[in-house]
Specification:
heterodimer; A: 389 residues; alpha/beta; seven-stranded mixed sheet; three-stranded antiparallel sheet; 14 strands; 16% strand; globular; B: 122 residues; alpha+beta; 3 strands; 23% strand
């Protein structure tokens, strides 16, 4: 194992920090370590970095500097957006529309809001994982205040029609939030083009450090804070700013934007080749999600009569890291809510693997993965053979 | 997460297959809920002379299946029925927290196969 070459194809989970991002961050740990709230020169260095970073993040999504709030990551951004709106509108509008395939950061926040007396409608998706616009429209009520629909799904990579949803939000005077944690750096993300009011970003999905993210909040929108403290980040996200993290996020976002065209072309080519190879060499397989309207780096497969964790572990033993939507505990296999929501057949639902490519993956690695997948699926089918049951 | 022994058994499971002229067959689970284990036993003079399995499931389901066949093979029926969940887990060098209950699934399949054998005797 130690001498085996390891191949990482789980970039939707996290990514390695880019050396250029590291270089940008390092001085802010040791030399420019000031508190951005301090008036002396150390503090001012940090404040300058904060301002420059805010500007870089804003520019990368077509926003204005003052519309960017730094957070600890996508989860916190989602929480601030949803809770912030609902709290602000307390006693008035209290209904949210979201989708059944959102990330737990949104779904669990919605659950919490429901327990606090708010109302949530979870709109379904079709078999390709796309939200039905008619369902969104029909879900709007007199007391609806917010629509929160992710830009791209983290498991099956489908890209949602956010721009069209923005039209529905605008017609009905609703706020629109989108979780763009998976889409930033993979496809163009422009807050005005999309027509969103709030947008969540995470750094570690785009070769930045973990523990830092951002929330875009359109000018004129006021949210209530989720945590309380000093007046940092317009009072919305108090706490001494994580300057090295913020500098890292800004550098990562900026690099992702610069490299977007080349990266997405490269990953898209690998993804298409992988899909074609898998369908050419392995029988009884499904591609989960929309065939075209998906992230360039995502391929989510389900193999009939193969269990996801077993497949993942065997691939890992062959040095290849992917992820699965299948989890096992207490005599029961649980498949992801996303795969359940797209109505995947029972014979396939437990056997999913998500391959999420990165800019450093190569065609040789894709070919290697295909070969290993072919052998591993055959081996597991030989062990399982439920047709015999 | 998993012990070296569990991974070893998972990677190279023994006694995989179907006994075509099995004296008893036991199946637990369903493909809808996941984890389907089928055990086949061959019995001669009250001794399990052969035990084979087919398992659709996770690492624990496969590793416990192969371990149960190895623990049961060559044992008398009573000895096989006395194999406990703890015995299986111990033989695998322990299982991660939360996965312990899964190990009983393969034993349930074995017990059903023995029950099937006994039912056929009457």
């Amino acid at each position: 194992m130690d001498s085996m070459k390891r191949i990482y194809m789980d970039h939707s989970a996290t990514t390695a920090v880019d050396p250029l991002v590291m270089d940008a961050m390092l001085p802010y740990f040791t030399e420019r370590f000031g508190n951005a709230s301090s008036l002396h020169s150390f503090g001012q260095e940090a404040a300058e970095a904060l301002s420059d970073s805010r500007s870089m993040v804003a520019e990368s999504i077509g926003a204005r500097e003052e519309e960017i709030i730094f957070t600890s990551g996508g989860t916190e951004s989602d929480n601030i957006a949803l809770q912030g709106v609902l709290s602000r509108e307390a006693g008035k509008r209290q209904h949210i529309i979201t989708s059944v395939i959102e990330h737990p950061a949104v779904l669990n926040t919605c659950s919490f809001l429901e327990s606090a007396g708010h109302e949530v409608t979870y709109v379904p998706v079709n078999s390709e994982g796309i939200v039905d616009l008619g369902e969104v429209e029909r879900a709007v009520r007199d007391n609806t205040v917010l629509i929160s629909i992710m830009h791209a799904n983290n498991e099956i990579g489908t890209i949602q029609p956010v721009k069209e949803i923005a039209g529905i939000a605008k017609e009905n005077d609703l706020y629109l939030h989108t979780d763009a944690v998976q889409s930033v750096g993979k496809i163009p993300v422009d807050v005005n083009g999309l027509g969103v009011d709030m947008l969540s970003i995470s750094s570690h999905k785009i070769h930045g450090p973990k523990g830092i993210g951002a929330l875009y909040v359109r000018e004129g929108i006021t949210l209530d804070p989720v945590i309380f403290g000093g007046g940092h980040e317009r009072g919305l996200r108090p706490g001494t700013e994580n300057i090295p993290g913020i500098v890292g996020l800004a550098k990562a976002v900026s690099l992702a934007r610069e490299r977007l065209g080349a990266d997405s072309a490269h990953m898209g080519k690998l993804r298409d080749s992988l899909i074609s190879n898998v369908f050419g060499t392995i029988s009884d397989v499904r591609l989960n999600g929309h065939p075209k309207q998906r992230l360039p780096n995502n391929a989510n497969f389900s193999f009939k009569h193969v269990e996801g964790e077993s497949l993942l572990m065997m691939l890992d033993m062959a040095g290849i890291a992917v992820s699965t939507g299948s989890a096992c505990s207490s005599r029961s296999l649980h498949s992801s809510h996303v795969l359940t929501s797209i109505g995947l057949e029972p014979d396939y639902i437990h056997g999913s693997v998500r391959v999420s490519l990165g800019r450093e993956n190569t065609m040789d690695e894709v070919d290697h993965l295909t070969g290993v997948l072919q052998e591993t699926v055959a081996k597991l089918r030989q062990i399982s053979s439920p047709g015999q049951c | 997460m998993y012990s070296r022994k569990t991974i070893e058994e998972f990677t190279n499971p023994k006694n995989v297959g179907v006994i075509e002229d099995a004296d008893g067959v036991g199946e637990v689970g369903s493909t809808v809920d996941g984890d389907v284990i089928t055990m086949y036993v061959k019995v001669n003079d009250n001794v399990l002379t052969d035990v084979k399995f087919k398992t659709f499931g996770c690492v624990v389901a496969i590793s416990t299946s192969t371990m149960v066949t190895q623990l049961a093979k060559g044992k008398t029926i009573d000895q096989a029925l006395a194999i406990s969940n703890e015995d299986v887990q111990e033989a695998l060098g322990g299982l991660p927290e939360g996965k312990g209950k899964c190990s009983g699934f393969a034993l349930d399949a074995l017990r059903k196969a023995i029950e099937d054998f006994r039912n056929k005797q009457h």
